[in-house]
Structure prediction request, 106 residues.
Amino acid sequence: HRFTLIYLHAFEQKGDVYLEGDTCYPWTKGGDCAPGLRTVFPTADLMQQPWGDTAPSWYMYERPDRNKAGNRREDRQALKSTRQRLAGIIEEEVERLGGDGERVFL
Prediction:
């Protein structure tokens, strides 16, 4: 492959949701297919949100009634964990492309 796209899913979804259905994406076979494109679909870790639901999420959402004075420690830690995980995925893909980070897209 010549390029890598790391595609992040929406809240409460999983990475493979974008492989299903008849939607035309550059990574699906057909007229919109992009030859030479490797696409990576990571699934976010499960996170308990402030309102109690636990679901795949790249970050913790904020409660609408929350004091705006500052971020909670768990919010910062969750975001740090996500950043580290994504950095690892990016580094792996850059390595696959011989160190050419300009061909990796997030």
User: Anything to note?
Assistant: Helices lie at 73-96.
